[in-house]
Structure formats: structure tokens, C-alpha cells
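Problem statement: downstream parser choked on a complex file, so we are re-checking the raw output for the alpha-D-glucopyranose run. The parser issue turned out to be on our end (a line-ending mismatch), but while we're here, posting the original submission so the record is complete.
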Amino acid sequence: MPEWWRDAIVYQVYPRSFADASGDGIGDLRGITGRLPYLRDLGVDAVWIGPVFASPQVDHGYDVADYRAIDPLFGTLDDLDALIEAAHALGIRVALDLVPNHTSNQHRWFRAAVASGPGSPERSRYHFRDGRGANGDEPPNNWRSVFGGSSWTRVREPDGTPGQWYYHLFAAEQPDLDWRNPEVLAEFASILRFWLDRGVDGFRIDVADALIKDAGFPDTPDGHPVIPKDASSPVHDVHRAFRRILDAYPGERTAVIETGADDATVALFLRPDEMPLAFNFRFVHARPDAADLRAAIDASLAANAAVGAPITWVTDNHDTTRSVTRYGTRAALTGAYVPGELRTASGAGADLEAGARRARAMALLLLALPGAACLYQGQELGLPNVDDLPDEVLQDPVWERSGHAVRGRDGCRVPMPWSGDAPPFGFSPSASTWLPQPATWGPLTAERQAGDPASMLSLYRAALRLRRQHRALGRGGLRWVSPGSADVLALDLLVPGETVRVIANFGARPIALPEGEVLLASLPLEDGRLPGESAAWVLPAR
Ligand code: GLC
């Protein structure tokens, strides 16, 4: 099929937390390979595997020390080759996570930069600046790190004296590369080819829109960094170069980028010669109510239509309070993560039953809308966020960098419950997993849910099966239908010869459904009516 990625279902694996084969309590590549049949049964087209390259793991792999090596924590290159081969045999494509904005401070380039001193070519691959103040002991500007604190860290020069400062958008162990230096692009072009040559189908590109900083590093009123993303920013040349590399390979290799920009700016990155896909964060942030969702959908469709690009719909990822919890609390409704800005919300006090009902309705919207969609591991199980992890197990660098003010993202990264009645729920041969699982997760295991037609997993499986059978789902043109109530979203998806109507009732009371065949409903109908906080797919009678 041409451009398979336009309506692909991508499944995000967070490697530490998916499946552990080695028994060290941390997920790994062989664990993922062992669970590929589960992904085939779920019905996904591609799997995006979070960062598995050699890394000191300060930000769980988003600090890469060697972009051409697998971290021993996750396995070996042979393990990755075996994973790719097994996935392809099941018809599943594989995307890796590429982190181009910053390296680890243990990367050979950064070590060379520190060792080589001010003004060296080695330093020019990063952003080194002299400090302010009489002795240069104040940071070069007032920009704040996304993870808290200053964006600048001072090094010791080779002679032992306090020296220059380097810029880091995230943690101090994640120095930002200077993408105005052509050596950086040359190196990443070679890294892309290295993995494409090994049969990787594409990449998820981390912080893709933030590669170019204002070289003047001006102070700003609120300490926000100045990161040009407009049409003339050189950041777009980087993505054009990446696209040319992808297109030079057979098999429609692709990429999905992470960008926290507004709809119109995201669309700039999706121009025909730039990236194929970008996560739609407007949808992540939408409240589960008819008005906000319709506004999000309309704005995103309009922006992307201008450049002919599909949307990648998403509600959950490894940086965001899980949606069952988010949709169950008022405070958390707007508490999702913005790339480049951390405001994960606590789910304390969430009504998880209401959250799960809304998440089920959202699943039917997510999987019907025209375009691609990305699911985060455990979303299909309806896992809630784990907001009561003990302080001493927290690992997100945000926790330390914020002086224990922000607990961070560990709550959405708790290992998957696969089977059994007690931790580790089949995740690992070892009882001590890198984050503890709630003892109450027995009813949420994949095994338990697979046998229950009313489970979240069964809903996702049924929805993905229907999406393969009905071309209008995920591919049709969208036409809004007058809903008859402010709490209801109604839309038709149209392809020649087929219309599927999606009705999502975010109100409290049941509503009538149109005449026709109900393909799927997120909750049992009540006397033929669609209950509050539920959604359905209907083939309208002609
Ligand atoms: C992206 C990742 C996030 C990581 C950050 C720094 O936003 O999704 O997990 O911490 O980049 O690499």
C-alpha cells in the first residue's frame, strides 16, 4: 500500500517497562521479541521502541553515549536484529528512538570538548560560552532547564581552573548539540544510515523541533529559551536532510517527530519535503468533552490539510499522566506534558471509574479519526497512573532537579502487568522490578483481560480489527454531523461506498443512536441507547 504510515497504528514500547527476559527487573530487547505475538494479536502496524542505545541512563536512554551501540542493559545488536526479523515476520514494522538534540555528557564528542578547551573545534559541536560576572561564575543567560534549574553547567578546564559553561535544555548530563555546525548533521546522517542499513523501518525523533537555538542566547523575561521554528529556521533544513536519507531507501522508511509547537508550526515540519508524521499534542491536551475535542480536531485537520500531511493522534506517552487518570480528575484534565515543558499532573483524587469510561470513549474516537495513531504500552489495558510511588523509588531526573517539587513521569512508566495475581505479574522472572507495580493490578493483566469481552484490551482488539475491515475508519474524509446536544460529538467518516458514523456522548444521560448497524460500542447499550460517557461506531442505514 502506498505510504503505509499515513494511517498506521504505532505502538510505543517503553523498553525498561515492557518485558524483562534477562531477570534483572528491567525490560529488554529479548523481552520485547517474546511479546511480539501480543502486538500482532492487538493488530498494530508498527512498534516504536524507546531509546536502547548505549547510555548512562540518567534520563532512561534519552542521554546517548554511543548512537551505534545497544546498551547492555537492553541486550546486544544481535538481539535487535532478531527483534526486527521476528517483527517483520509478523508484519510489524520497527521504529527506533533517535535523540539528536543532545548527547550524553559521556559521549566521546562531549568528553573531547571538555578536554580540548575554549575555542576548540571539539567545543564547537556544543554550545560553550563564557560565564558572566567578574570571574565568569554566573551562567551566560537566564534560560531555565525543562527539568528545573539553570540550563547552563560550568566545566573545569583541562588545567583545573573553573571554565566555560555549556547549554542543556534538559539535565546537565544532556548537553545540547550545535546544529549549526555541519559536522553534527554529517554524523547524524551516518547514524540514520547505520540503522536503516540494518533494516529499521523508521524513527521517532526526540525534541525534533528544538534543534536550533537563538545563537545570541538572549535573556528572556521568564527564562524561557528562544528556539526558532518559523519557516526560515535552519531546523527545517535538518529535517529535509533526514527526509532525503529516508527516501533513498526502499520500503517507505518513515519518521514521526516530537514537537510541542502550535498546529501551524507543527505543519511546517510536515511540508512534503520534511517529515512524514508528528505527534498531535493538541489532542493529548484536549479535555474529554465535545467542544474542546472538536476544536482540537478541527484546528489540527486544517493545519495539516494545508501541507497534505496526515495527523498522528495520540492521548498517552511515557511523559504524560496516563489518560485513565487524567480523564478522571478535573485538575489533571489540562495536566499533560508539553515537549519542552514539564507539567505532569498528579492523579491524586482521580475517579478512575469515570476516567476509564471516558478513556474507552476516547479510544473509539482516536482509532476512527483520519490519520495515524500512536498507542502507549498499557493504554490498551487501561492502566492508571501510579501516583503513590514511594519517594525513595522515584528515578525521573526531574525529581532531583526540581528539589523534590515535581515528582516527574515515573507514574506512567511502571512495568506492564502481563499475567498472574501478584507482582511482577509476568513482567520479569525477578520480583524486584525497577519500579514497583501496584499489588492491585491483577485484574488489569493482559492475560485476564484477553479472556474478558468487556475489558479495555478486548475493546482495543475489536476496534483495531474493525479498522482493518472498514476503510472509512482511519482513512475516510471527516464530516461533522449535527449532534443534537452540546455534550455529543457526531461525525461521519466517508470513503466511496462506505460511511461510518462515530458518536461520542460526553454527557451523563443516554442518547438515541441513528438507525443502522452498531459495529462497536465502548459500553453496553441501555435499551438500544448510548450511555453517558461512551462512544459507538455505527454503519448508518441507507
Ligand atoms: C523528550 C522525551 C522525554 C525526554 C526528553 C529529553 O521529550 O520524550 O522523555 O526526557 O525528550 O530527551
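For whoever reads this later: The first strand starts at residue 9 and ends at 13.
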